[in-house]
Amino acid sequence: MNKLDKLHDIVETEMAYQMLYNKYMLQITNPEVRQLFTQLRDEHMQHVTQLQQQVQQLKKNPNNLN
User: Fold this and answer.
1) Per-residue DSSP letters for 28-62?
2) 0.85 exceeded by the pTM?
3) Residue 23 near residue 39, CB atoms below 8 Å
4) Which of 14, 25, 53, 62 could form a disulfide bond with 37, CB atoms 3.0-4.6 angstroms apart?
């Protein structure tokens, strides 16, 4: 498994976490807990964005895939 494959796996995992936090956030009525889930969801979405940027960089320079 090369770097690109690993990054794709991590992106998928981060997106799954983001979706879970979003799902739970919508079900929570306690505003403090809801805020926490919103924050966690947003952090995972930032990770997805950063990882996707890394994927694009690796695609531009395929010599660094191993």
Assistant:
1) ---HHHHHHHHHHHHHHHHHHHHHHHHHHHHHH-G
2) no
3) no
4) 25
| Number of alpha carbons in the 13 Å side-chain half-sphere of residue 31 | 0
C-alpha to C-alpha distance for 45 and 25, rounded to whole angstroms? 14
30: left (phi over 0), alpha (psi -120 to 50) or beta: beta
Q: CA quadruple 28, 34, 40, 41: dihedral positive or negative? A: positive
CA 28/CA 53 separation, integer angstroms: 32
Reported as a single tens digit per residue, the pLDDT across 18-58 is 999 999 988 999 999 999 999 999 999 999 999 999 989 88
pLDDT at 49: 95
